[in-house]
Amino acid sequence: MPFSVLSALIAAGFAAANLFCIIFFYQKPAQAFTKICIMPFLALYYALSDGVFLPAVFAAALFFWLGDILFAKRRSTPVIVCGIATFFAGNLCYSVSLSRFVSFSVGAFLCAVIITAAALVLIFASIPTARRFLAAATMFYALSLALLLLHAAALLVQRRDFASFLIFAGILCLTVSDISLARAYRSKANRLSNFLVMFLYSASQFCLLTGLSSL
Asked: 3-state DSSP: the chain helix, strand, coil percent, rounded to 5?
């Protein structure tokens, strides 16, 4: 069995174990442990795959791994902001990788950035001052996610192959996972919401790294 496949199977095993722990061992150390074991094996899976190795993709996987570690700790505001920053860096690394395979018209790209930035400014203005530091970090992350989604959509339109579909599906899963996570923070989180967040997050990383390894 190739080592890349073995790494993917180990990552899938930890992902399945994490979902099991969410349902049966809610807020236990086993849940945190299985979560932080997923990304390093996915990074290894990508590094050992037969496709073209892009350092930015490998760096993105490591940034998401660091974010998982931070969010496994006590969730104070500084730790949350640091975790968001690592996910922001991971999204930018994915975007840099995808930019090698897509082309935009400058006008379309600037319009997308301006519209997204304007929407974020309007949202930011409506947030109480005491929460603006955390909100600012979240909005920068949202902007990086929008940029990543734009790259994935352009890749899917221009290539229309299975790899680009996997990448676009992965980013959609990541987006829905983040929205579900934000809703869970606003209301009392439960096992079902945590299960959905982690299922989509794990699926997104599997799809992204598999798709990027096939370009």
From this structure: 85, 0, 15
Cα(93)–Cα(91) distance, integer angstroms: 5
Distance from C-alpha of 105 to C-alpha of 23, rounded to nearest angstrom: 47
Cα–Cα distance for residue pair 41/123, rounded to 1 Å:
37
3-state secondary structure of 53: coil
> For residue 64, what pLDDT is reported?
95
d(CA 130, CA 30): 34
Range of the domain at 191: 3-213
State how far the Cα of 60 lies from the Cα of 56, in Å rounded to an integer: 6
Domain count, the chain: 1
Can you give the pTM of this predicted structure? Answer: 0.86
> Measured between alpha carbons, how far is residue 196 from residues 19, 63, 113, 181 in Å?
9, 22, 29, 9
pLDDT category, 167, cuts 50, 70, 90? very high
pLDDT in tens, 79-121: 878 888 899 899 989 988 998 888 765 555 566 566 666 655 5
What totals of helices (H) and strands (E) does the chain contain, helices first? Answer: 9, 0
Tens of pLDDT along 131-160? 656 667 777 788 888 888 888 888 988 888
